[in-house]
Amino acid sequence: MSKVSKLDVYFGNRLIGTMALYKDTLAAFEYSKDWLKDGFSISPFSLHIDATHTATY
């Protein structure tokens, strides 16, 4: 079984999204559905706020 580590990211009490690390080599970030409604990009260089994309590194 593969291990996935997850970290929820908050702005105050509001969930921005979830960062996940898979097999200690692949990282991904996904904005929460609520944040996509009226939130802002937390990194305009690489984490554009878009419901159709998940940023992976």
UniProtKB/TrEMBL annotation:
Highest taxon of source: Bacteria
Domain called HipA N-terminal subdomain: residue spans: 7-52
Protein's name according to its UniProt entry: HipA N-terminal subdomain 1 domain-containing protein
Organism whose genome encodes this protein: Pseudobutyrivibrio ruminis
Lineage summary: Bacteria, Bacillati, Bacillota, Clostridia, Lachnospirales
